[in-house]
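Holo prediction — 4'-deoxy-4'-aminopyridoxal-5'-phosphate.
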Amino acid sequence: MNTALQADATGAATGLDADRLRADFPILAQEVHGKPLVYLDNGASTQKPNAVIDAVGDFYARDYANIHRGVHTLSERATAAFEGARDRVQRFLNAADRHEIVFTRGTTEAVNLVAASFGGQRIGAGDEIILTGMEHHSNIVPWQLLAERVGAQIRVVPLFDDGSLDLEAYAALFGPRTRLVAVVHVSNALGTVNPVAEMIATAHAHGVPVLVDGAQAVAHARVDVQALDCDFYAFSAHKIYGPSGIGALYGRRELLEAMPPWQGGGDMIRTVAFEGSTWADPPYRFEAGTPHIAGAVGLVAALDYVDGIGLDAIAAHEHDLLAYGTALLEQVPGLRLIGTAADKAAILSFVIDGVHAHDIGTVLDFEGVAVRAGHHCAMPVMTRYGVPATARASLGLYNTRADIDALVRALQRVTEMFG
Ligand code: PMP
């Protein structure tokens, strides 16, 4: 049972009992270097509840076969499970049509799909693509590869010091050659929640479609692609308590229908002949080859799990932890938070004077505290703030104030050792 809407055992009235939810995640009940594991690397990947582990195991034990092309019972069951997952993702994102959900390996592959297919068709020499200064490399490099291939230009929305976007500068970047905006919903390096609905409205006023990178958003707030009015929305299952190796791209139906295939193979065709082949309709046109079938089953279990708790309750819980953690970290001598925007989600990125982020990460690991240290695949963000790397604590639904206390105690060890 995971829907405990009770007082938080940590004392916060967030409507979510994280201490009880932790019991759903077997991996959390272990010691690392003789200390209880405190997992604060959810931005990189989240841990899996029993509901997901069991769903994947049961599927392999009972129902697994390849999908779509079989007439036998197991193939029919596996196909029903996979296509049922498409319906589940459609509901989760509130997409208007199940054919708007394309399964991919994750966010990275979804962006590469749009860059290759939509970009290859609609973006040419002299055209412009607008990105922001806080994009993950997976929402920069596919556009650079396209831009190099076709001779397009990339324009970048600058950041204010607090890690929010300069929206006036954004509006001023639009011109007659702007063909696409690609923007991260929640920054993995800064935690900034971008006002994507407003940014999409600006882009649409110029007739420009928008891709939203939702990798860090879906586990922390309710996403409604129709309310956002976005054209593409990408996310990865592993960031929302599901399996790695699967994710989804939402694409507006008229756009997907006009887009050419980007990978060829089985399942994406209507007819094949040596004289020429024809393509299946979306989403199958973009799903060449055997997909991560069990991953889709695990994704359904993950979305059911998260919706069972309620994204609003999760968001409230994480905001409480964020406020609690921010106040405590600000008191650590020499510590500077990178990313202090007013609208932030679940991420505490920081540097400590005179200590390299990797040393922070290593000392914390010895204290049982798992954080990430590095550039977080967002090197332009590091350049913007003049730091080589940050340490990053990123929160999930199972984290508690006690976890933040453990982080702060472990940081005291860091300042003792390096201070
Ligand atoms: N965008 C953002 C903001 C991310 O945080 C990540 C993962 N760190 C990605 C994209 C890429 O996701 P994946 O590796 O699952 O494709």
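READOUT: The longest helix spans residues 73-93.
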